[in-house]
Here is the input.
Amino acid sequence: MANKQADEPVLSGHITIDGLEGRYARVELPDGTLEDWALASLPTGVKEGDVLSVHVEGGDLDIEIDHVETRRRRTRAQAELTALNGDAPDGEITL
Here is the structure.
C-alpha cells in the first residue's frame, strides 16, 4: 500500500457562496453540504453566488474567486429562469 506524499493535494475543487450573514459566509461544498466559514478567511469582495476555487496542498490553503466559473453558472441559471418564465401565462413566474 502506497503512502500519500505530503505535497499531494488533500482538497481541490469548487465551493459556492450560498449566503453572507454578518462575519460568516454559508458555503456549499462539492458534495452539497453547507458549512459556515469565517468571511475573513475568504477572498475580499466575495458575494452570494460566487464560485471559489479551493486547493489544499502540503498544509497550504489557496482560495480564489473563479470569475469564469461564476459567470458560467450565472449565465446558465439566467437562461433556465428565462425559459421557465417563457412558459408562464403572463411571462413571469410568481412564487
In short: Residues 10-86 form a domain with the OB fold (Dihydrolipoamide Acetyltransferase, E2P) fold (CATH 2.40.50).
